[in-house]
Amino acid sequence: MTESDRRTFLKQSATAVAALAVTRCLPGEAGRALDDSTLHAVAEAVLPSELGPDRTSRVVAEFGRWLSEFEPEAELDHGYISSEITYAPPDPTPLWADQLGALERAAQGEHGAPFSELEVSARQAILRQRIAGEQPATLGPAIQADHVAVAVMAFFYATPEAVDVCYRAGIGERTCRPLDAATEAPAPGQGV
Amino acid sequence: MAIARVVESDVCVIGAGITAAMVAEKLADERDARIVVVEAGGWTTPLGQRQARRQRFLAYGENPWTDDHLPGQSARGIISRSMVVGGWSMHWGGASPRYTSEDFGIRSLYGVGDDWPISYEELEPYYQDAEERIGIAGEPGPPELDVRSKPYPMPPLPMSYNLQRLKEWGESTGVPFWTAPAAKTTVPYRGRQVCARCDTCHICPTGAKYTPDFTFQRLIETGRIELLPRTLVRRLELEDGSTRIDRAVALDRDRPDEPVELRARTFVLACGYMWIPHLLLLSANSRYPAGLANSSGLVGKYMNGHRALEGYIELPMRLYPGIFRTQSLITREYERTRSMDRYVRHDLRISASSDGREPRVRSDAGEMLLGDEVMDDWRARTQDRATAYVRAIYDVLPDRDSAVTLEASRENRWGDPLPRIDFRDSVESTAVRDHTEQRIRALFEEMARAGDGRVLRTGLIPGQHHPGGGCRMGTDAGTSVTDSYGRTHDHENLFVVGGATAVTSGCTNSTLTFAALSLRSAEEIARELPARTG
Predict the structure, then answer these.
(1) What is the pLDDT of residues B360-402, one digit of tens each?
(2) Residue B69's closest CA among B312, B208, B253?
(3) For FRET with B43, which of B91, B267, B375, B429 sits at 20 to 30 Å CA-CA?
(4) Does the distance separating the beta carbons of B371 and A45 come in below 8 Å?
């Protein structure tokens, strides 16, 4: 792997907060301090509808487990090129919990109904008001997301599953796989 | 003052990275000698824990290598903080190309820089030895571009679907490409299982990628060496009335009040381009006020390292990033050019990239994307277009004052001044830098056109890579620190191995060359030791 490949990869991986397999291996307290109903309603609004309810629910559960396993201030990978030692950010749960509360208040204020009972388009409208202004084009590390809705997207889109859904193929990015199978194009029809 | 704990040996190797592993293994395999390896860092994540640490890295970006650096033991300008058993090569990517013959004779061939005191042909058997000890899987290139005397020890990594497509494109420019050699297994090899393309080579969870701790563990388990981790060597001291090194004075980081003295017939400095000059400069005394091995004044000088220009090229093809992202194609076409008007030499690598193909949440028009919009947008940008990553490492010749120096104002916790590195290009390299980078960018443009694509962006990767120098080798004691075996001109029982002896940095990844140089040094060191019996 070239240095630059590695640098790019490390950046993407640090960005990434990946693997559904990780969270399956490390079950924790789903949802932690986040309101599960509102979080689920956010996921339905920001994730692709083709996932369907079951897979969306699974992503939400895995997001919750991932968050519960997070260790604030853990030393981050310093890899090649940089000699700087950096550390994970503080636990974002309080901020994200507040944001879910704010979404509920906005739903009640604008529509007189809980956020989870709004149409997806209405939820998206509320979310756009809150995250559109400062959100850059690309998704950064989920754990550093300024808004819980962005965190859910960053979490999902960093998974091998998201890549397979996009390409409609069974790539299995970053999963350990037989070497020889690399020579063929991934089998179509995987993912969704 | 506490009485020092004395550790005696025939050969004391200071540092426990890949070059130390090569020296220790060759000596232990061939000679009947007591070998002690001393490492300032400790052991890091064992193989059995690497899968779990990899998962944490993927999930949160955490450092998968536990305790891999010493607090406060930092150097300004260094490009990695790894100080650990196994050294930087614990987290290397495994790229293992050789230098080409031109790298060793640029003054004779091109009239720039300096020749090495050895040729490629002299080093070639040691390249082979290094490839076998490390375990390299490789595909030989065309013989006129990729000279070698024997096959690689392992068959090449199978060329991924993506690279097959990119090879067709790359070769449409008339230049041959083949898969880059790598320190990864394609067959079971010396206890290592076959690579499973987990694509996190800097933390290989299966042990398919070589890391030097494997070598040290084997040598320790078979009683062939003693390894002292967490032991920081602070200075070397001379025998009274002699130029020979008598002992290395160290401290046990777990018992810093109890000094350690390492006594040996031969001392081998294998702690890298930064910390070798640092130790020699720290070892200054009344007889050698400029530091040991420094009668030439060149310890810490001629620090070298090449630069790398990268590019991202959009091509009208469908690739699947994530199939085997750590694999790449290489050509030596631009390293081996013998005729040129101005000195420009570089390697060229191609790999698949997801750059510009990532999911995004803002459209080109600046609108926020949510829900299905994100996936639809992502699919549209990956359906029939892909991104190729191209990268050229180009040779940079060092100035004499490209240097490692001690910073009196910065000390570690034990009161030793810390080093800094300031790279400086030679006048010759400065003169051709813009020309070199323009040539490479023009090549990227040409490649893009050949594939009906376009260059998305190019850029210089920060820093100078695969650094070396600081104890350059040579035949003249007035213009070099060591001979071609790494033996210091000033102290007959003091060797410097690996990158620190490099005259120039070539124009491709350097680890294998440093390993080969170390094995050649080991052969010279071994001459003074009895052969191993039984």
Answers:
(1) 999 999 999 999 999 999 999 999 999 999 999 999 999 999 9
(2) B253
(3) B267
(4) yes
Q: Which helix (H) or strand (E) holds B147?
A: none
Cβ pair A183:B160 closer than 8 A = yes
CB distance A137–B310 less than 8 Å?
Answer: no
CB–CB of B193/A175 below 8 Å?
A: no
CA–CA dist B471, B513 (Å, integer): 16
In B27-152, which ranges are E strands?
35-38
pLDDT score recorded for residue A191: 55
Could you identify the residue written with the tokens 């290094």? B130
DSSP class of B518: H
Provide the chain B residues 105-134 that lie in CB contact (below 8 A) with chain A: none
A143 to chain B: which residues are within 8 Å by CB?
Answer: 60-61
Structure tokens given for B377:
């947008």
Average pLDDT value over all residues in chain B: 96
Q: Is the pLDDT of residue A15 over 50?
A: no
Exposed / middle / buried, residue A185 (Cβ in 10 Å: 0-12, 13-18, 19+) = middle
Say what the ipTM of the complex is: 0.92
Locate B308 and state its tokens: 């790398």
3-state secondary structure of A20: helix
> Where are the alpha helices (H) located in B336-426, listed in sequence order?
372-382
Q: pLDDT tens, B129-148?
A: 999 999 999 999 999 999 99
Please give the pLDDT value at position A189: 74
**Are B512 and B96 within 8 A, CB to CB?**
yes
Pairing of the two strands B178-179 and B417-422: unpaired
- Which residues in chain B are closer than 8 Å to A186, comparing Cβ atoms? 161, 320, 323
Residues in B 334-353 with any Cβ partner in A closer than 8 A: 349, 351, 353
* B-contacting residues in A 93-112 (Cβ below 8 Å): none
Eight-state DSSP code of residue B61: -
DSSP line for B31-72: B---EEEE-SS-----HHHHHHHHHHHHHH-B-SSTT-S-TT
The verdict on B47 touching A (C-beta cutoff 8 Å) is no
Take residue A151 and report the two structure tokens written for it: 């965190």
Q: How many Cβ pairs within 8 Å bridge chains A and B?
A: 233
- Residues A71-129 pLDDT 10s: 999 999 986 777 789 999 999 999 999 999 999 999 999 999 999 999 999 999 999 99
Within an 8 Å CB–CB cutoff, is residue A91 touching chain B?
Answer: no
Lookup result for tokens 């790019």: A8
